[in-house]
Write a structure and sequence with these properties.
Radius of gyration: 18 Å
Shape: globular
Largest sheet: 6 strands, parallel
Structural class: alpha/beta
Bound molecules: D-glutamic acid
Length: about 270
């Protein structure tokens, strides 16, 4: 029997999923959250399908062993490639990904149904976003582009300047050159919201820009409520972090993604 005080497990290939963690923390202040970042093996976005599935299963199994009451796959690449595998392997606990909520957010924001998706190479190649968008909106016209340089830019904290603008324009200009242009851009990778300022500069004021974080938190809250899994203990939930690499480095870079300090004492190293 699940105890509602068990933590929600949130995981990602590294620190990027903290953008999702942050949205969950805001929406569900009473939940205990346990985050796992596989920093030793990031990036997943350029790895093979088999490797991504194996690594993702290892992360999920670790959190399940620690007694989480549900799993949030906060990484777009893991969600796009490995979600069905996880749902089969852990039938006893709910497993949510970020692709479906991101697709839902896009369909809500787009009037024309012309939607552009940017993500890692593995996410784009698997076509999971396009498939999810068409489930909500069968007439949608989806164009996608992999933007592999955006992850290192975000991790370096390079969010503006001529060099960054040129890189962003080089990836995005072709997507928006078509007539009529997409009216919605999906930031289909955990790191891209950090570049939203420069992305907005490049695509102009018109297209809507959506990411998965808020909608994932919404879907999680609804799912926990529906299954009677919300923590109703009435106190603030705790934040605990696990990393497969250096804990101090996780705390330092993680703060950029979380938007607030990551207390070093709450970060532990684990091996998978
Ligand atoms: N977290 C990944 C994603 O959202 C980006 C980093 C990586 O490639 O592992 O797709």
């Amino acid at each position: 029997m699940t105890d509602t005080r068990q933590p929600v497990g949130v995981f990602d290939s590294g620190v990027g999923g903290l953008t999702v963690f942050r949205a969950i923390r805001r929406r569900l202040p009473a939940e205990h959250l346990l985050y796992l970042g596989d920093n030793a093996r990031v990036p997943y976005g350029s790895k093979s399908r088999e490797t991504i599935i194996r690594y993702t299963e290892e992360c999920a199994a670790n959190l399940v062993e620690q007694g989480v009451k549900c799993l949030v796959v906060a990484c777009n690449t893991m969600s796009a490639v490995a979600l069905p595998t996880l749902q089969r392997r852990f039938p006893g606990i709910p497993v949510l990904g970020v692709v479906e909520p991101g697709a839902l957010a896009a369909c809500r924001a787009s009037a024309s149904g012309r939607i552009a998706v940017i993500a890692t190479r593995s996410t784009v190649n698997g076509g999971a976003y396009a498939a999810a968008i068409r489930r909500y909106r069968p007439d949608a016209q989806v164009v996608s582009e992999a933007c592999p340089l955006f992850v290192p830019l975000a991790e370096e904290g390079w969010f503006d300047g001529p060099l960054v603008e040129a890189i962003v324009a080089r990836y995005l200009a072709p997507l928006f050159a078509a007539e009529p242009a997409p009216d919605c851009l999906v930031l289909g990778c955990t790191h891209y919201p950090l570049l939203s300022g420069v992305i907005r500069q490049v695509i102009g004021p018109e297209p809507a820009m959506v990411d998965s974080a808020e909608t994932t938190a919404q879907v999680l809250a609804a799912m926990l409520a529906e299954r009677g899994l919300l923590n109703t203990a009435g106190q603030d939930g705790s934040n605990q972090f696990l990393t497969t690499d250096d804990a101090a480095c996780f705390a330092q870079i993680g703060a950029r993604f979380l938007g607030t300090d990551v207390c070093r004492d709450n970060v532990s190293h684990i091996s998978l």
